[in-house]
Amino acid sequence: MAQMFSIFLVLLTLITGLIWLVDSLVFAPKRRERAALAAGVSNIDGFEPPLPYAVDTAKQIFPIIAFVMVMRSFIYEPFQIPSGSMMPTLLVGDFILVEKFTYGLRDPITRTKFWDVGEPERGDIVVFKYPPDPELDFIKRVVGLPGDRVFYRAKQITVVPACPTGQDCAKPYLVELSQQHTSEFAQNLVPLNQYTETLGSDSHEILQHPVLSASASQFYRQPGTAMDEWIVPQGEYFVLGDNRDNSRDSRFWGFVSEEHLVGKAVAIWVSFEFERATDSLLPQWIPSGIRFERTGGLR
Question: Which end of the chain is more exposed for a tag (fewer CB within 10 A), N or C?
Answer without folding.
Answer: N
